[in-house]
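Submission sheet (multi-component)
Chains listed below:
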Amino acid sequence: MYDIATIVVGIIQVLAMLALAPLLTGIIRKTKARTQKRIGASILQPYYDLLKLVRKDEVISDQTSWIFRACPWVNFAAMATAAFFIPVFLVYTPFGLVGDLLLVVGLFALGRFFTMLAGLDVASSFGGLGSSREMMISALLEPALFLSIFVVAITYGGTNLSTMIEASSNSSFLPHPQIIFAAIGLFIIILGETGRLPFDNPATHLELTMVHETMILEYSGKSLAMMEWSQSIKQIILFTLMVNIFVPWGISSSILFSSLAVGFFMFAGKISLFGIFVAFLESSVAKWRLFRIPDLIAIAIATSMIGIVLCYL
Amino acid sequence: MNNTNLENYAKEIASKFSSKIAKTWQNNDELHLNVELDAMPKICDYVYKNLNARLATIICSDERKNIGGFAIRYVFEKDNVFIFIIVSTGQGFAFPSIISHIPAAALYEREIKDMFGLVPTGNPDMRPLVLHEHWPDEVFPLRKEFELETKAKRQEKEYQFLRVQGEGICEIPVGPVHAGIIEPGHFRFSILGENIVNLETRLFYTHKGIEKLAESMRLDEALLLSERIAGDESVANSSAFCQAIEKIAQIEIPKRAKKIRTVFAELERIYNHVGTLAGISTDASFPFGAARLNILKEKLMQLNEYLSGSRILFGVNRIGGVRCDITDENKKLILETLSQVSDDFDKVTILLKSKSSFMDRLRGTGAIQKKIAHDLGTVGIVARCVGIDVDARRDHPYGSYYLHNHKTPQELVQHQIEMEKRTGDALARFEIRVHEVQDSLDIIRESLDLEDDSLFTSVPENLEPFRSALGWAESHRGQTLHWVMIGENNSIFRYKVRTASFCNWPVIEQAVLNDIVPDFPLVNKSLDLSYSGNDL
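Outcome: structure written.
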């Protein structure tokens, strides 16, 4: 059993994820604006947006059922729960025994499942279109995600995130070349999961081209705030996984205050850098044709497969 | 200079239909033929198929006081001649439809039905076009008895869209209110999965009654009105209007004015093309390219403002010349700005062309077949992207454009090969725009060598009533036609505007048929159609 101090640190980790999620979105948006020679909104803008939405009234179509109303809660609950299993700046999480990476993926799927249902539930033609696109993409993304997770799991001895990250922080990836392939695969998948270019354009106003945005088109007020916040949390969870599994440098291995502080700042730095990298990447590609997206996911599957083969060589 | 062509066509038509033609006369470079109403479809068919002329527009006007009926003018375009086939409806309120011969006539006939209440017998599509279903059936705004101030009563009716039926077919209604800052227009998609099975557009939400309004205005007021038909085509539209009036008044504007008009027309073309290219980049979700191009557009618009006092070049033209001068100092500024823009533009287009993800989005998207583009009577880039080589600047020289029409035989052959290669997709339209921006930059540089004469000539105080003329210009969207008939006391009796967008809108319904829903915005932007310029 863990002592109280560890559990407190664990809870602080979760709260940090929830609190910092919109900031990451802000950093990415700001970077994209700068690459386009725009000044861009402040990196705190996502917080202001959430605050604004929370204060607004909601309009709910009379064609909807309970699914539409439940969806933001299910999404938020799923993402917040997932955050409990992610080691952020401490190398393990006290709640890690309850759930592993597969559960995190399952929670994402739960949120997505409800979002797709809500898209259909509003009975608008765009919602249905968005759900069908999301269904196509996620049906391909999930196997790819599992494959790349398995590479990491085989290498580091289990799907439990604490074990994984502990193992990765204690060993170099040089004797495990398959990790590089898993990283490439997982990176492509993360772009898809978070709805970034070249999969989906998070900044567009064109309802005919959107994927994620079409499903939440009918949301307003608090529900919209919750949907957007959940999406940011999902994003920060995936980014955290990426940096902590593949570049675990500086992560704290004890609950001493000094090493936790180092761990936190290293985490903040790494994740911001990763966000900026993603923003630059987004600036340098156009969105792919919808029916080309499977090609991209196929690359992720292929690299993960190579990783699995390398595990047994 | 074009009398030989014109006389040849007159002779050729007369030899076939001499008994049906009441009168033939010439008005500048227009050949007018008064023909009998019953013989009109055959003559039009002959002119369209045997002379291979293009239907430029159909103009109807209420001349019941003068000739005892509505006059309908079928305007065809062949080489550098406009052939007017004129009929009078007499006592009746119907005229034979020609869409079985010339498909492009369909929209014009529906427009005449809405505005004049004349029934095109034989046109299967009698749904309202310009005036929506809420407008009362028996009120026709362009008839002379219709008072400008009339408040029409609203009636309840529903528009019938074409229904596609079958398993798995969904309808998506888009608009007329869109996300983002776009003009209103309704698009009804019938889709099977992501594939577009049918698209029906419903426009004319921004109908402003321009043609009726002009009839209550003085000429100089109507000039301001013409600038406001579509904000981004202000120079093209006002030039076309001015040229129509100048033709009626039989005046030649000074050479300096001609060149200044050319400079502004090309500045307008450049800033719009750059803006459209930015839009294409946005709609392909490549915001980086869009941002770079939008910076250039802004620089050009600031130059516009410095030169003319208006970012979108309002107030450049006046009847008989131009209002804005280009001083030596301004010349230097134009050259400096353009060389900067030109350098940056080259860099951005090279970048865009090297992005495989961007080029892949454009290639094959929104492809138009040449036959469809021809049958629908498209103009401008939409026609040029399939290799139909029309450009009013070259076909019907106006302003100072004839200066730029020297082509060696080698260039000519190269040009024809180039035309044959064009594929009609969004990529072709992208490349033509890039090319035209570079051409326009050259035209401006050449035109800046201005003569030292005046900015305008005086216009006769009183124009002869019931004289008419056609004015034209090539806007960045294509050929723009303005036909003006002068009334008594220098008023406007009839003002008919046909912008390029009116010709090009029907093409979008065909262009999307091989595409999927998420590519529609890209197809739409690459065609660059104006709502305001279409709805009038």
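Remark: Chain A has eleven helices and no strands.
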